[in-house]
Design a protein that fits this description.
Order of helices and strands: HHHHHH
Number of strands: 0
Structural class: mainly alpha
Radius of gyration: 17 Å
Largest sheet: none
Number of helices: 6
Strand content: under 5%
Distance between the termini: 54 Å
């Protein structure tokens, strides 16, 4: 039952953010699927021993791969799928807790939560960098093989 709730909430949070950011209607369903897949990669990798950083990295890789695929399928910019699909992975709770702890004077707890936010954000960025790098290498490989034939 918990897994079903995670799927439903990740899908609808992605779609709702897509509506707020005015992405085209024809991309909303695919954005929802991309966000859900990214969240599932994050959520299901943690019981397998992945830490928060690796789990977020895997989620971002999933979002990046699916965004790349759907952007080519729909002939739309990749960012249309990337931005809304990241919403389930964003560390809003730990960021709020970090600020709250600093305001209350608990520097150690604030630092721990800040570190969690930094690791999460870095993992998400790293996942996107890897996908971007692989896409560039693949595009260059395709161009090179197209010119040799």
């Amino acid at each position: 039952m918990t897994l079903i709730l995670h799927i439903v909430f990740s899908f609808f949070s992605t779609v709702a953010f897509g509506i707020l950011t005015n992405i085209p209607r024809r991309a909303l369903l695919l954005c929802g699927l991309t966000g859900t897949a990214g969240w599932l990669a994050f959520y299901l990798s943690q019981p397998l021993g992945a830490g928060v950083g690796l789990a977020n990295f895997l989620g971002a890789l999933t979002v990046g791969l699916m965004s790349l695929f759907f952007s080519r399928m729909k002939k739309m910019p990749m960012i249309i799928f990337n931005i809304p699909s990241l919403v389930p992975l964003v560390p809003g709770g730990p960021a709020y807790k970090a600020i709250r702890e600093f305001v209350l004077g608990n520097v150690q707890a604030g630092t721990e939560n800040s570190w969690l936010v930094i690791v999460t954000a870095g993992s998400i960025a790293g996942g996107f960098v890897i996908i971007s790098l692989l896409e560039n290498l693949y595009s260059k490989w395709l161009r090179r093989h197209a010119t040799t034939k």
